[in-house]
Write a structure and sequence with these properties.
The protein is α+β, with helices and mostly antiparallel strands. Helices cover 39% and strands 37% of the residues. β8 and β9 form a beta hairpin.
Length: 202
């Protein structure tokens, strides 16, 4: 699966960007600690306003000729990538989403896609998966049933979490792949669920 190679490389690059962002945050914190009480309180006000709830925006795209829509984070930039039906992300923070799929008429059943994902977990060299984090569980969105395959791994010294939602729609088997630092999912679990529930054919 060529898409996996692209994915692993992208995750490695984005994870590196995410760790750079953490360094900037540490420097900002250090500067704030050395500032006067007035500056510190101003900084706290600015921080609290920047931590407001993230906004979602609607996007439309096609998977194998079928039109779909879903909500994604407003801060994500839509990326042009021929390997995926849709992709968007934030390079500075190293998180995003990719969507791809195959027509149900092109394979016998969804197990082929799920087995391919499992085989690729084992075959990745540049991304060291933490075996104890691998999870496979049934998943239900507002519109479709499927499975969630998730794990945490290390790429270039940074932890990254990958979640593959494998869904069966009326015409396709679709993979919605979210990626980011583990803290992204800790902070935004409800938003990820909202984004998944918004995924639907139009």
């Amino acid at each position: 699966m060529k898409k996996w190679i692209v994915l692993v490389l992208l995750v490695g690059i984005l994870s590196g960007c995410g760790s750079g962002g953490a360094k900037e945050t540490s420097e900002t914190k250090k500067q704030t600690e050395t500032a006067s009480t007035t500056a510190a309180s101003s900084s706290k006000k600015a921080t609290s306003s920047s931590e407001k709830k993230l906004k979602l925006t609607d996007v439309d795209f096609q998977v194998e000729g079928t039109a779909y829509k879903m909500k994604i984070l407003d801060k994500w930039e839509i990326l042009e990538d021929e390997e995926f039906s849709f992709s968007a992300g934030n390079e500075d923070e190293g998180d995003g989403v990719m969507v791809y799929g195959i027509k149900k008429t092109d394979v016998n059943d969804i197990e082929i896609l799920k087995n391919s994902l499992r085989d690729e977990y084992v075959a990745m060299d540049d991304f060291q998966i933490k075996e104890e984090t691998i999870k496979e569980e049934a998943y239900q969105t507002s519109h479709y049933t499927g499975e969630l395959h998730s794990f945490v791994g290390v790429a270039e010294g940074a932890n990254a979490e990958l979640r593959f939602y494998v869904l069966e729609t009326e015409t396709d088997y679709v993979v919605v792949n979210f990626f980011g630092l583990p803290s992204f999912f800790d902070r935004n679990e409800e938003l990820v669920t909202e984004m998944m529930n918004s995924f639907v054919a139009v």
